[in-house]
Amino acid sequence: MAKQQKDEKSTRNQLPIAKKEDVDYSSEFADENDKNAVDRAAEADKRQES
Question: What are phi and psi of 24, to 5 degrees?
């Protein structure tokens, strides 16, 4: 019985395993966010220079 409780505890503490398509989608989303951030930073730099 104690072993069963230990197994249940370790199962609850495990992180979910990411699927490849989830990781690919997340990296695409991050790339898009990076591009947007770079564009905004460039615009801010232009405003400061003028």
Answer: -60, -45
Ramachandran sector of residue 35 (left: φ over 0; alpha: ψ -120 to 50; beta: rest): alpha
Q: For residues 26 and 18, what is the distance between their CA atoms, to the nearest angstrom?
A: 10
* pLDDT tens-digit readout, 9-48: 556 678 888 888 888 888 888 888 899 999 999 999 999 9
pTM above 0.70, yes or no: no
Tell me how far apart the alpha carbons of residues 28 and 39 are, in angstroms, rounded to a whole number: 17
Q: What is the distance of C-alpha 25 from the center of its chain? A: 10
The beta strand positions in the chain, using DSSP E, are: none
Radius of gyration, alpha carbons of the chain? 22
